[in-house]
Amino acid sequence: MLRSRLVHLALALGLLPAVPLGACELSDFMAMPLPASERPAVALALELAYPGLRVDEMAGKVILADGDRLPLGRDTGRTPRDILADASIAEQFVQVYPLAFDLSARETPWFDPGRFRNDAFFRALWFNDEASAARSLVSVRYPRKRAQPRFAMTTKHCVAHQLDGAFAALAEQNDPALEKFFTKVGGSFNWRVIAGTQRLSSHSFGIALDLNTELGGYWRWEGAREGSVGSYDNRYPKNLVSTLERFGFIWGGKWHHYDGMHFEYRPELILHARLLAQ
After folding, report:
1. How far apart are CA 98 and CA 82, in angstroms?
2. Residue 120 has what pLDDT?
3. String of b and e for 36-50 (b: at least 16 CB within 10 Å)?
4. Which pLDDT tens digit goes with each residue over 217-254?
5. Quick check: 266 pLDDT over 80?
6. What are the pLDDT digits (tens) for 26-74?
7. How many alpha carbons fall within 13 Å on the CB side of residue 216?
8. Which residues contact 262 (CB under 8 A, 6 or more apart)?
């Protein structure tokens, strides 16, 4: 955890490098052309989201760019609570992420598309240790805010570039109402486990960020009971959420166990939802 604290200090002092120019081509995952194919949507979504990754449906394997092979698994009909504790790669997709700005689906207990994460897959796709994750980080700034809050994000799979593109698109909207969401921010990279569990948070990999914590809301802070969280008083606007989604970041405000400040890079879930809607 010492390395995480050093990263936070470097970020606060402006010592982390900025996003390198021209290293990645920006992707709009809501507009990206989708192939006409009879292959499973899960396989296509993973391959489109992470170039170099392959899915061998016959063998039931996900093959990473470095040759690492992981079991794909399948939907066995387990309860969401059981999946949350130990999801297979395939089970990460059993709940379809809603593309519309409609929070009615989250009223269903345990509807948490994006909270299901296979730890071995995340470690293989991203990083297996804190030092490797920390070495990949750059500083991403929201350009419209006078204080210009910084977020430490990984350059792997172009995550930092995608966030930089999302922030630029938000800034182009010239909407002063957005600026309050970039004050009192919760942060970004932090190698840690999820509260109440032994599972690594997506923040550990430099793929997640929390915007204004006071406006976002988090179910645990409200003292809600797991599996019966109840209503969520959302204060995050559609244009903020949908813009970040375009660039691959899903929003925790669409979860039953809401985390309204939280965005994480999961383009495969956005592509999967679009493929199923074709």
Report:
1. 22
2. 95
3. eeeebbbbbbbbbbb
4. 999 998 899 999 999 999 999 999 999 999 999 999 99
5. yes
6. 999 999 999 999 999 999 999 999 999 999 999 999 999 999 999 999 9
7. 30
8. 186, 208, 209, 210, 216, 218, 251, 252, 253
Residue type, 235: R
Domains held by the chain: number: 1
- In the chain, DSSP assigns E strands to 54-56, 61-63, 69-71, 137-141, 150-154, 185-187, 208-212, 249-251, 262-265
DSSP string, 245-274: HHTTEEEGGGSSS-BTTEEEE-HHHHHHHH
* Cα three-residue angle 108-87-36, rounded to 5 degrees: 80
Query: Which residues constitute the domain of residue 46?
Result: 2-20+29-277
Quick one: pLDDT at residue 233? 93
How far apart (Å, rounded) are the C-alpha atoms in residues 187 and 4?
A: 12
Token pair of 45, please? 């979504």
Q: What is the band of 193 on the pLDDT scale with cuts at 50, 70, 90? A: confident
d(CA 232, CA 42): 30
Going by C-beta distance under 8 Å and a sequence separation of 6 or more, which residues neighbour residue 57? 39, 40, 43, 72
Report the candidate in 199, 189, 201 with the shortest Cα–Cα distance to residue 4: 189
How far apart, in whole angstroms, are the C-alpha atoms of residue 79 and residue 88? 13
Amino acid at 39: R
**Residues near 112 by Cβ (< 8 Å), separated by ≥ 6?**
80, 84, 95, 255, 256, 257
**pLDDT digit string (tens) for 112-149?**
999 999 999 999 999 999 999 999 999 999 987 666 78
d(CA 84, CA 91): 9
